[in-house]
DNA sequence: GTGTTAGTACGTCGTTCATCGTACTAGGCT
DNA sequence: AGCCTAGTACGATGAACGACGTACTAACAC
């Protein structure tokens, strides 16, 4: 089984996380994950970019520690790392999600 | 008297604000402002960059709506737009400040 | 096996951005 | 007037980034 690297909770960096959340396409992914669409493959997200660009954004989110990903067959299962983010940067994710929903 | 442009509260954009807060030098400025150092000229901030780069960062913060600036003689007086940011993006500034202080 | 599907690797292109130095302006002080 | 100080304008440079297409791999279904 293929594996994917994730940073540990105490390795999360504010710079990286803010950079990850700073892109509108990535916020769109995070929003869809937050709204419960976390049982679908990357390709099923509605994004205005190509497949390879989509891969790029998912990887940025993962290496920043915003989401975690694991393989399910050929597809990838992504989830928001809510608890980890809240532990390290309390309130940040919720504030961004809140702001993004307007 | 020279004047400086500021976006209205309802014109603040999440993208721009996140981009502004995403830079470590600018977060340092914001932190110093939040900690009460808001009665000093731009040049008095302790920043690891040149004077012209410093001007650049202050302008990014102002045009994003994170700070407001007005002339006091030749110097510029900068303040955090706490209330405006809280009105438009509740909790965001505090979450970032909190995270930046670790 | 073949074919299909989901995602990756890689190289490229164009844009944006942080940084700088130099030359300049506006306001205050003597 | 002359000088100093705080900040700006402008142009240059190099790095980072978002976007793309093409060619590839891994897992599943048949």
From TrEMBL, chains A, B:
Residues 6-100 form the HTH arsR-type domain. GO terms for molecular function: DNA-binding transcription factor activity. InterPro entries: ArsR-like_HTH, HTH_ArsR_DNA-bd_dom, WH-like_DNA-bd_sf, WH_DNA-bd_sf. Gene3D superfamilies: Winged helix-like DNA-binding domain superfamily/Winged helix DNA-binding domain (1.10.10.10). Pfam families: HTH_5. SUPFAM superfamilies: Winged helix' DNA-binding domain (SSF46785). It comes from the Bacteria. This is Transcriptional regulator.
């Amino acid at each position: 089984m293929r594996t994917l690297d994730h940073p540990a909770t105490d390795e999360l960096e504010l710079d990286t996380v803010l950079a990850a959340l700073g892109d509108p396409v990535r916020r769109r992914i995070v929003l869809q994950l937050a709204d419960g669409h976390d049982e679908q493959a990357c390709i099923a997200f509605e994004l205005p970019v190509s497949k390879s660009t989509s891969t790029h954004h998912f990887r940025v989110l993962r290496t920043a520690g915003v989401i975690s990903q694991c393989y399910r067959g050929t597809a990838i299962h992504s989830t928001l790392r809510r608890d980890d983010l809240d532990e390290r940067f309390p309130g940040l994710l919720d504030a961004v999600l809140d702001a993004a929903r307007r």
